[in-house]
Each structure stands twice: as structure tokens, then as C-alpha cells.
Amino acid sequence: NTKITQSPRYLILGRANKSLECEQHLGHNAMYWYKQSAEKPPELMFLYNLKQLIRNETVPSRFIPECPDSSKLLLHISAVDPEDSAVYFCASSPPGHNTGQLYFGEGSKLTVL
Amino acid sequence: GEQVEQRPPHLSVREGDSAVIICTYTDPNSYYFFWYKQEPGAGLQLLMKVFSSTEINEGQGFTVLLNKKDKQLSLNLTAAHPGDSAVYFCAVSERNNYAQGLTFGLGTRVSVFP
After folding, report:
1. Are the beta carbons of B5 and B24 closer than 8 angstroms?
2. What angle do CA A4, B42, A42 make, to 5 degrees?
3. In A, which residues are within 8 Å of B93 by CB distance?
4. Tens digit of pLDDT for each residue in B36-46?
């Protein structure tokens, strides 16, 4: 799905700070960050609707989301931990009542040394 | 909140045979149901979305059955081929006026062997 782009696609970090970026060109109002650890399903981290944070699951405080506008979503990670190694998927969904239909990006794979 | 149980966790299928993956959910308000396929190192590919009360949907090489009475969703791979080797996730969502995301099952790793 090239209409949701994530960057970077791959990153390898020691205990550093980094930001993941996501942008969608679908005109959607809701944007999500999901974390998928190895051999696990995707788990919701954050959900924004119209730039408002409306779901904030149990996530370590070193993860800070930012939604500068409805089409863009950032995830700032400070002092990464080995347990943060995972693929981080961005997703978006259309405005209006919830249909459950999410459009996923291709993911950003984070490897923490 | 919603809980989704998916079984089996692993499935080994001979090429040409069929295989079934079953998800059981708990929330009676769940309304939208999805099957995703994830190949190694890849993203989530939507296979099918269903939301009628009891529905059989046919896709390319698979059938999806939703049984709301028993709160079960199943994916039947018919005549499996090597390209079906992947992890399959079911996912559910409520019908609401606001975005809320999906609850995923734990996944089933399918391996198709000759």
C-alpha cells in the first residue's frame, strides 16, 4: 500500500533516540501505531483521531507519539531497550463511523543491539 | 474488553489438501471481522472482511465462514499451495461511531509441504 508510507523501513540502534514517521494520502482522520514483536500479533500502542490522542495503551514512557496533522504520525523513541525490537506498523482508517477497516503501512523494523 | 482466541497456532498442510483456522471471540458487540495474511518479513495483507450474521465468503483459494451465534470465525484454505505458507491473523472490531482499532488473534503459522 504505497498510500501509507513509513520511514525509515529498517533501523538498528544502540541506546539512542530515534523517530519513526508515517504519512498517509488517503484523506483518513484516524491514525494508529501498532507494535508487532517476533511471533506475536500486532498490538495497538496509540490511536489518534483528528489529531487528538484517544487511545493510549500501556506503553513505556520512552515512546512518545505526535500527530502534527491528520495525515502525519510520528513516534519518538528515547533510550531504546532490547525489548523494543519489533516491527512498528502505522495504520489509518476513514472518517465516519467505525468499520474496522484499517489500512496498514509496510512497517518500520527496529533492531536494538 | 474483547478477547480473540485463535487455533491452531501451527498448521502443517500437504500441498493440495485443505486446512481450517478458527477464531472464537467473546464480545457480542463485535461486528466487523477480518482475516489477514502475513508472509515472512512482510506487512499485513487483508484477505477478507465480513460482517453479516452468518456468511460464507469465497476468495481465491479460501472460504471464510462467520457464525455469530457461536461467536466463531473460520478460514478454510482449499487446495493449499506453497504460496499459502504464511502467518494468518483474524481480527475483530466493534461497530461504533468512533475509530477504535482492531483486536487480533495470536496467529496461525501455516506451512505447506509437497
Report:
1. yes
2. 75
3. 98-100
4. 999 998 989 99
Q: Which of A67, A99, A103, A109 to mutate to test the interface with B (most CBs of B within 10 A)?
A: A99
Chain A contact probe: residue of B31, B100, B103 with most A CBs at under 10 A: B100
Question: Torsion angle of alpha carbons A8, B42, B8, B73, nearest 10°?
Answer: 90
Residues 6+ apart with CB under 8 A from B71: B24, B25, B26, B28, B30
Q: Which residue has 496467529 as its cell numbers?
A: B107
pLDDT of residue A14: 82
With an 8 Å Cβ cutoff, the interface of chain A facing chain B consists of 1, 29-30, 32, 39-44, 47, 49, 54-55, 89, 93, 97-102, 104-107
DSSP letter (8 states) at residue A95: S
The closest of B40, B43, B89 to A2, measured between CA atoms, is B43
Any idea what DSSP says for residue A26? S
User: pLDDT below 50 — which residues of chain A?
Assistant: none
Q: Collect all residues of chain A within an 8 Å Cβ-Cβ radius of residue B104.
A: 41-43
- A42 contacts B99? CB cut-off 8 A: no
Tell me, rounded to whole angstroms, the distance of Cα B103 from its chain centroid.
Answer: 12
Closest-CA residue of B relative to A97 is B97
Closest-CA residue of B relative to A100 is B93
